[in-house]
Design brief:
By secondary structure, the chain is an alpha/beta fold. 40% of the residues lie in helices and 12% in strands. Helix 2 packs parallel to helix 3.
């Protein structure tokens, strides 16, 4: 029950409506959202994006919750980076309810640039998502979130 609440909270964070728009809509960028509900399936999806075949160009941004069921976000990062011998082209941002210093340190050890609290107010969330989308667009990728 606890992990389902966390997933509902993440979806609620991304799709929180403010003046009739979701937070992602408020960034001003076009996006396609693929929702994966647990860490094992998310890891499988990321691993099938083969950079040698350009597969990782399908994806610009992963918004990762540390509290995923079946495999935590931290375990997903460990498995993903442990299995990858090459850099990937997509960006990973952590959007989480955990602001524990230890979790933040572990996440940063994987060179994750963005650690965003789900408890941030709407303006902070929209600002962080806009900044990330602008940076992605600035390196020649489409601004899909």
């Amino acid at each position: 029950m606890g992990s389902q609440n966390r997933m509902g909270r993440l979806r609620g964070t991304l799709h929180r409506e403010l003046r009739g728009k979701t937070l992602l809509d408020m960034t001003g960028f076009d996006y396609n959202l693929e929702h994966i509900s647990n860490g094992e399936d998310a890891l499988d999806r990321l691993m099938e994006l083969d950079p040698d075949k350009g597969g990782d160009k399908e994806l610009d941004l992963v918004l990762l919750d540390l509290g995923l069921p079946r495999m935590s976000g931290l375990k997903l990062l460990e498995a993903f980076y442990g299995a990858r011998s090459r850099e990937h082209r997509f960006r990973i941002a952590v959007l989480t309810g955990s602001m524990a210093p230890r979790d933040r340190q572990e996440v940063m050890s994987f060179r994750i640039q963005d650690y965003i609290s789900k408890d941030s107010d709407e303006d902070e969330l929209v600002s962080a998502l806009r900044r990330i989308a602008s940076e992605i667009q600035g390196v020649g990728q489409k601004p899909a979130v």
